[in-house]
Design a protein that fits this description.
By secondary structure, this protein is mostly helical. The protein contains six helices and two strands. α5 links the parallel β1 and β2. It starts with a helix and ends in a 12-residue tail after the last helix.
Length: about 160
């Protein structure tokens, strides 16, 4: 849910004003969803996470079209927040084509967006700082945000 939620929060300005889930947009510099379900309609259709989308949304899209329209990042395009979408090419939990389609649509709508598609990485590799995929993700995050390496090095007393 984290990848979906960060992209949704970064797209809050596009949630319809009369939606009960509309909130004041937060000041994001960038959004970096990791293996997110960025299209809730597709997530419902493919029964991702054993029906997690339906549980989150309270039912299917044909019964709750306004709810899905207000919560699905791909429907809320374009976001004013640049997106670096990270996805493992071997993800068998959330198909990488969801991220590929999101980035394609975002760019088509004039949004700054790119896809970091990690060959050999699965769904959990992209969220595990100990995985072989993590250095590429970390470097991309730092490049996107203009950040520096601020990792805290802990030492035993």
């Amino acid at each position: 849910a984290g990848g979906h939620l960060v992209s949704w929060l970064a797209s809050m300005a596009n949630v319809p004003a009369d939606s009960p889930i509309r909130a004041t947009p937060l000041p994001f510099r960038a959004a970096i969803p990791l293996a997110g379900v960025l299209d809730l309609h597709q997530g419902w259709k493919e029964h991702l996470g054993n029906g997690a989308v339906g549980e989150l949304m309270g039912g299917p899209p044909d019964e709750l079209p306004d709810r899905y329209a207000a919560a699905s990042p791909i429907v809320l395009l374009p976001s004013t927040v640049p997106h670096l979408v990270v996805h493992g090419a071997k993800d068998d939990i959330v198909p990488v084509d969801i991220s590929e389609r999101y980035v394609g649509e975002a760019v088509r709508h004039g949004q700054r967006a790119s896809l970091l598609r990690l060959v050999g990485a699965d769904h959990f590799d992209v969220i595990d700082p100990e995985s072989a995929a993590w250095p590429a993700i970390r470097d991309a995050i730092l490049a996107l945000t203009g950040g520096q390496d601020r990792r805290v090095r802990l030492t035993n007393p």
